[in-house]
């Protein structure tokens, strides 16, 4: 059965371009033009992932994510924030609100689709693991324990910054701005293949499993400016 994605943006052109692309990719897409309407849709239709803008009428993206995360049923729900705001503090607000990925505008639809596939795959695995854990310990939330343990481990790894080469630090900084391998390569005068090698090295050193986790770790741990 196709997975369902909720696309939230007050700009009609953006909603249509994203929803058309995702529908062609095989997803079921529901759209909303403000945060309040999106929240109602989440509670009614239980989508598998949310893609939302930040600046919207009635309820902005930050508040939408916070309200979604308050419901235990949606703590595993992947959320991607889309915005033209690229300042570090604003990205931190996004992650603090509970988003999984912060993607700055303008963005390539292909890149968005790749991020969606990545988050959905991880979400499905986490749901399965949570289900098994919950069956074995019905009085305890396995997800909360695992999630807490995961981030405690990350907090203990802030010293990894000292193990980064100067080039890896440059790649990490650009990565947090949502640049593709080609875009980073143009700025650093490297080939996309070489950039990918640096990204792989960063994933290994930080013990993160994908770019979304790497960016979130880098920002929350203050590894980038």
Automatic annotation (TrEMBL):
<protein>
    <submittedName>
        <fullName>Response regulator transcription factor</fullName>
    </submittedName>
</protein>
<keyword id="KW-0238">DNA-binding</keyword>
<feature type="modified residue" description="4-aspartylphosphate">
    <location>
        <position position="53"/>
    </location>
</feature>
<dbReference type="InterPro" id="IPR000792">
    <property type="entry name" value="Tscrpt_reg_LuxR_C"/>
</dbReference>
<dbReference type="Pfam" id="PF00196">
    <property type="entry name" value="GerE"/>
</dbReference>
<keyword id="KW-0597">Phosphoprotein</keyword>
<dbReference type="InterPro" id="IPR050595">
    <property type="entry name" value="Bact_response_regulator"/>
</dbReference>
<dbReference type="InterPro" id="IPR011006">
    <property type="entry name" value="CheY-like_superfamily"/>
</dbReference>
<feature type="domain" description="HTH luxR-type">
    <location>
        <begin position="157"/>
        <end position="222"/>
    </location>
</feature>
<dbReference type="InterPro" id="IPR036388">
    <property type="entry name" value="WH-like_DNA-bd_sf"/>
</dbReference>
<feature type="domain" description="Response regulatory">
    <location>
        <begin position="4"/>
        <end position="120"/>
    </location>
</feature>
<dbReference type="InterPro" id="IPR016032">
    <property type="entry name" value="Sig_transdc_resp-reg_C-effctor"/>
</dbReference>
<dbReference type="Pfam" id="PF00072">
    <property type="entry name" value="Response_reg"/>
</dbReference>
<dbReference type="InterPro" id="IPR001789">
    <property type="entry name" value="Sig_transdc_resp-reg_receiver"/>
</dbReference>
């Amino acid at each position: 059965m196709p997975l369902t994605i909720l696309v939230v943006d007050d700009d009609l052109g953006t909603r249509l371009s994203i929803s058309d692309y995702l529908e062609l990719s095989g997803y079921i897409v529901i759209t909303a033009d403000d945060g309040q309407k999106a929240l109602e849709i989440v509670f009614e239709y239980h989508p598998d992932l949310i893609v939302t803008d930040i600046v919207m009428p009635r309820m902005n993206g930050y508040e939408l994510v916070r309200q979604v995360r308050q419901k235990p049923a949606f703590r595993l729900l992947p959320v991607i924030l889309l915005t033209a705001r690229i300042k570090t503090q604003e990205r931190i607000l996004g992650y603090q609100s509970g988003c999984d990925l912060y993607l700055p505008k303008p963005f390539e639809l292909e890149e968005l689709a790749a991020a969606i596939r990545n988050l959905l795959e991880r979400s499905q695995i986490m749901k399965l693991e949570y289900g098994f854990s919950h069956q074995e310990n019905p009085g305890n939330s396995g997800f909360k324990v695992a999630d807490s343990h995961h981030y405690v481990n990350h907090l203990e790894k802030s010293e990894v910054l000292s193990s980064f080469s100067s080039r890896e630090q440059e790649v990490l900084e650009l990565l947090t701005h949502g640049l593709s391998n080609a875009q980073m390569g143009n700025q650093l005068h490297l080939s996309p293949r070489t950039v990918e090698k640096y990204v792989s090295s960063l994933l290994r050193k930080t013990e993160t499993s994908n770019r979304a986790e790497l960016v979130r770790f880098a920002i929350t741990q203050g590894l980038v400016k």
